[in-house]
Amino acid sequence: MLRLYRDPDRLGDRLTTLRLLTRPPDDIRMQAERLLPHLQQALLDWPVRVSAEPALSQIGSGSLPIDRLPSHALVVRPGTRKRGVLHEIEAALRGLPVPAIGRIADGALRLDLRCLAVEDEADFLAQLAALTAART
Q1: Which pTM does this prediction carry?
Q2: Cα dihedral 126/132/135/136 (nearest 10)
Q3: What's the chain's average pLDDT?
């Protein structure tokens, strides 16, 4: 494993965590814009609004417990005063074959895209039909 560090120019290609932590914010923003209409369609029958917004990714604990990186998120807000719908959607996302984990903060469910690799987008999109089924 330490041999990887002998070639620092290719380290991001070989270490997934480093590659995801060093993703340019503009790449994440473009990914959010690509995925937004698909999530909006999947949640069409839910009383929510979905948008793509700037976010800050908390990158860890230990020596960097509060450091954050610029990112972008898909944000789901309730269309009514009832916020229980966010917990329903969160549960449906966690119940997908490959769970999508978000966080509820400031009255919205936020799906930070920093750690969704571009090569995993198609799998994420393929699962979204399950959200429509969860509503019926």
Answers
A1: 0.84
A2: -120
A3: 85
